[in-house]
Amino acid sequence: MPGPHPVEGSVGVSGMSTCLEGLKEAHGRPWPKELIALGPEESAQQMVLRRIQELSDSDQQDPFMLADLDILASRHQAFCQALPQVSPFYAVKCNSSPWVLRVLAALGTGFDCASQVELEQVLGLGVAPSRIIYANPCKPASHIRYAARHGVQLLTFDSEEELTKVAQHHPGARLLLRLRTQDSQSIFPLSTKFGASLEACGHLLTSARDLGLAVVGASFHVGSNCQTPQSFTQAIADCRCVFEMGRGAGHDMSCLDIGGGFPGTEDSGPKFEEMARVISAALAQDFPEERGVKVIAEPGRFYMESVCTAAVNIIAKKAVLEPGGSRKLMYYLNDGHYGSFRLGHREPVPRVPIVVKEFCSEPPLFPCTLYGPTCDASDRLFLEDVRLPELDVGDWLVFPSMGAYTSSMSCSFNGFLPATICYTMGPQLRSLLEAEPESRVG
Ligand SMILES: Cc1ncc(COP(=O)(O)O)c(C=O)c1O
């Protein structure tokens, strides 16, 4: 079998990286073996190819995910540069891998948690409760009690029933009223499930006051992978109305949460910088800085999508003749809908992987259905076929930009375990983590 060689973007493998296992970090513990320190000239892409080579040479061709933590740090920097007036509270649901959270904790982001387990994960890193928002408008009572016991005060709500629960289980909470948005243009809309209409807000604000609860602001989410930056403009203007209503009801309105929805890559749809310009203009109009309102956001996809690369192996293959006589291929991969590709059915266009194989000349392409490994016939990566060359069992496919809503949504249906994750980091990030208190890196 030839060595790994991507059809696109071929790179060599230098053999310079070190597994950080055995290296002692500041607190005398060994670094875990899933963490790879990149040498000065090395890239995470080279590590993917090296790992593929190692696995191909062994008898284990399990799928894996490689997370480039330096990209995560640069996404954080890009967010803060484009929206300096907004504090990011990373949406843990997007990717809750331990090293992702550790790096973000060290970089100083806040965190948006959706459940007790996510709260536990973030608090367990030594993050102060004041850096956490429990941003699920419909929460189990026991999780609300957990937040109360651990000092997590900032909570969202969008209904009277939630207010009743919070009054009973967390009377000292500081609440943000989540507003419904016009998010039908987003790839993953959320407003059918969450958000109060503007008309309902007046009543909710007086109900909160009558229950003795403090509403401190408003929040919204324009839908994940928002395609229309103007959705932010409208939602921010609506929040201004909610702030006025809240103040009228006697609440001290001081926090605006503009949610997530920022693009994960620049491949299609609106560019992040353009979106940030639209948001900044809307904030300047409706929440000018001199009013002293704290503005936060809950980015997930923007931070994580480009961080991870998934490598999957072809475990079985069939060739079929279509009614017109044309040839079609069915590839069965060891990762699929129940693994890293849960959202593949809902993405507007299928992702075309990089083929890790050497060809003498430009190979012909065939329509290919990419199936996952389970016995469920709907376990396919995408609803549409992709065009790929003729490949063999044992060949590898690489999918870049697989960091958002992938590992965090995978399960072990049919006994196929989620892809293992390894992480790369360069020297700068490593120094930052070494300087962290023990609770963050242990
Ligand atoms: C409440 C909340 N905040 C933030 C996010 C993150 O959104 P995104 O990944 O689009 O930035 C989500 C995603 O579903 C969400 O439900």
TrEMBL record:
Q: Which GO terms describe its molecular function?
A: carboxy-lyase activity
Cofactor dependence is on: pyridoxal 5'-phosphate
- The segment(s) forming the Orn/DAP/Arg decarboxylase 2 N-terminal domain are 72-304
Per the Swiss-Prot or TrEMBL record, the active site comprises: 375 (proton donor)
Gene Ontology CC terms = cytoplasm
N6-(pyridoxal phosphate)lysine is found on 93
Which keywords appear in this protein's UniProt record, sorted alphabetically?
Lyase, Polyamine biosynthesis, Pyridoxal phosphate
Q: Which domain of life is it from?
A: Eukaryota
Single GO BP term:
putrescine biosynthetic process from arginine, via ornithine
Instruction: Using the record's annotation, list all stretches that form the Orn/DAP/Arg decarboxylase 2 C-terminal domain.
Output: 306-403
Q: Which family does it belong to?
A: Belongs to the Orn/Lys/Arg decarboxylase class-II family.
Q: What does this protein do?
A: Catalyzes the first and rate-limiting step of polyamine biosynthesis that converts ornithine into putrescine, which is the precursor for the polyamines, spermidine and spermine. Polyamines are essential for cell proliferation and are implicated in cellular processes, ranging from DNA replication to apoptosis.
Question: What name does UniProt use for this protein?
Answer: Antizyme inhibitor 2
